[in-house]
User: Fold this.
Amino acid sequence: MNILITGITGRIGTNVANFLIKSGHSVTGFSWSKDQKIKKMEKLGCEIVVGDLENYDDVSRAVADNEVVLHMGAAFQSGGPFSPNQYFDINTKGTFNILEACLKSRNLKHLIVTSTDSTISKYPEKKLTKPISEFDLPQDTTEWYGYSKILAENLSRRYYISENLPVTILRFSNVFGRFEVCRWNQFYTGHYLETLRDSKYSNKKELISELEDHISQGKQLIIPTSGGDSWKKHVIDIRDIVHAYDLMICNKNTFGSTYQIAGPNSFKWEDVVPKLSEYLDLGYCKVELPITPTFYEFDLTSSINDYGYSPKWDVISMIEDELKSNDQNFGDVVPTEADFRRGYQV
Assistant:
């Protein structure tokens, strides 16, 4: 099939493109003219159409001859900073242009619009006690990245309902590429030490002193707790995202639906950090933090039932893969540029 990927030079777009090309598809990328990573994609075998999502003529030209459009292009939090105008123009108006161009295309069989779990408020002051399915929590985020994605999702649903456009919405959880887990900053005591230095918590001096003592004793890893409970999170490996796209493309069961994907299960710091401590020969501490806790997991039932999603990579298997492999050989995974990786060790 002829497949267009917007945002193709990003960490996810690159890996999805690489897989689809190796699977025999003809892949075209839509990219900003000043993107320095265009050459990298051309080496993988992609044709590149240069243009701006905010420009309908550019978008229409890119969409025209393609049967499938994977819309991943966006202004996103770690790629910025972006202004409110940029978030709106790129994420909301850009998605509108994609929807309009796809509606007018004679060749289109499926459009998948990429969204994010940042559209929902998953960090309440008290922990969430049940897995989150796609519409369990209100989409009430007001920060500009998440809010612009809410608008993009609503536009997409409108085009399915009113125009019968074969569109699917796919949300990701926190994404890891290969060899990005062991040094993730949220496993490290120093990350929370720096967070507390910039905070206004009443007991921050005592906590800073406690964390500094732990670090001086070699306890570089940390299990953060709230109310005595270890924090919990649900993340996803890029390889499972590729798996989801492969199953979803042109699957009519997905048309008009919204899916939240993540790894096979969530993890608790108290389960992962001791193993990481053993693997890396680093000490760890367990500290009650006043910070709003990370404590959530996603219900994957819709993805499993509708298109057979079967993720492989949980955090433990990612760590084991990272430690047993040569980090100079990424296998089928195209590595993420260092400046776009998730936060690293502090």
In short: DSSP finds eleven helices and 14 strands in the chain.
